[in-house]
Amino acid sequence: MSETTRHPLARAVLTGALVSVFGLGLGITPVHADKLDDKKDQIEQQIQGSEEDLEDLNSTLAAAAKKLKEYQDKLPAAQQRLAAAEAAVTTARSKVEALQARLSEAQASRTELSEARAKRAQRGTDAQAMVGQIAANAYRTGGASSVSGNLDVLFSGEDPQVVAGSLEIASRVMQAQNKTIGTLREQQAQDANDAARLKAVEEQIADLKSQAEQALAQQKSARDTAQAAKDEVDKILADTASAQGTLKDQIADVQGKLEQQKKDQADVNAQIKERQERLKREAEARAKKAAAEAAAKRKAAQAAAKKKAANAAKLAAEADAAETNASAAKDDATPSGSYNESSWGLIVPADPAGYITSGYGWRPTPAGTIDYGGAGGYVHAGLDWGFGGRCGLPIKAAAAGTVEWAGWKGTHGQIVSIDHKITKGHALTTNYNHMSRVAVRVGQKVKQGQVIGYVGTTGNSTGCHLHFETVVDGSTVNPARLLH
């Protein structure tokens, strides 16, 4: 159980060292972002934008792929239409070729018939001219009487050779005339037959031309349909290829930008890392320097604390000697500077079951408490009462007075301070530390023996106890001198 009295210089040195150390720790990261940080933020925003663009393009590419799938699903039907149209073109072309062949044959037949008729017509004209010539000659020689005249010559008894020659001539003339007339009749019959054939051929030609025109129209329609089907297939393939090519180009462009941005990001991060390492090295150097300075100050404070403790021990010894001498005097008048129980009248503030565990004066720092001065000990400024480790026992006012502090006070824990005003010409204050709970308030008037709080172990304490101090004219004195 203990109470530590902090030396102001030691506390200041410790606080300064802590501030220096923690302050140096904060120095690793700059308070304000520099240009590298701004550039890093800018690149990160650019990367985020590029990644969003890439995501959008990938979504668009997926949509295009879906559209391509739809086109590809339509492609077999379009190809079937194209194949059907091409087959129709082939059929129509074959039909046109067949009709054109038949038309050529019919036209050749027509030409042949026309030429035959022309030849027959010429022969008929020649035959008619011959018959006319025979008739004309007969007319000039007496017509039919020339024949009978020839018969008269035959039977007149003239020269038989002359008669025979005349008969032969007459017979040949009759044969020629009859042959010519027969030929004309045959030609007329053939002409009538050829005219009928030619009419049929002309009708066939007209029909074939009509069929050929229809076949050509069908061929043109089939060709147009096939071309439309082919154009549709070509357009589907071209559109999808163009869309995919454009998207892939855009994706490649964005990926290139993203790659460059990530490279820039890596460069900036490397620069920031180098800067942080440099700041860390500088901070560590400052920390080492501050630690060395703090160690030097702490060493000086320890020396000062030891010196002060030695002076305090010397003063305490001198005070004890003076008090002993003063008590031995038989003079009934008590000097104003002496502190004996008859003049101060303080009562023990602790329960009678308590016992003193630590006296007033220099002592080593107890285990479990903080050695603030670093000297390994300090001046214990009061008396400690222990109660076998029990907390909660009542604490009483050693004398009547006014409460000037009631509550928490740093390492003292819960504390009550009572101002007893001027007693025997001296300002007197009593302090009751490490309470578990206070029972009075600031400004309250208390009587001697009144319960002001309860034993505890708050603050810098190692167990349940009461630390009691007496402060005379601003300095602590041994409470044992002022108690009954």
From TrEMBL:
<dbReference type="GO" id="GO:0004222">
    <property type="term" value="F:metalloendopeptidase activity"/>
</dbReference>
<feature type="domain" description="M23ase beta-sheet core">
    <location>
        <begin position="380"/>
        <end position="479"/>
    </location>
</feature>
<dbReference type="InterPro" id="IPR011055">
    <property type="entry name" value="Dup_hybrid_motif"/>
</dbReference>
<protein>
    <submittedName>
        <fullName>Peptidase M23</fullName>
    </submittedName>
</protein>
<feature type="coiled-coil region">
    <location>
        <begin position="33"/>
        <end position="116"/>
    </location>
</feature>
<keyword id="KW-0175">Coiled coil</keyword>
<feature type="coiled-coil region">
    <location>
        <begin position="198"/>
        <end position="332"/>
    </location>
</feature>
<dbReference type="InterPro" id="IPR016047">
    <property type="entry name" value="M23ase_b-sheet_dom"/>
</dbReference>
<dbReference type="InterPro" id="IPR050570">
    <property type="entry name" value="Cell_wall_metabolism_enzyme"/>
</dbReference>
<dbReference type="Pfam" id="PF01551">
    <property type="entry name" value="Peptidase_M23"/>
</dbReference>
<keyword id="KW-0732">Signal</keyword>
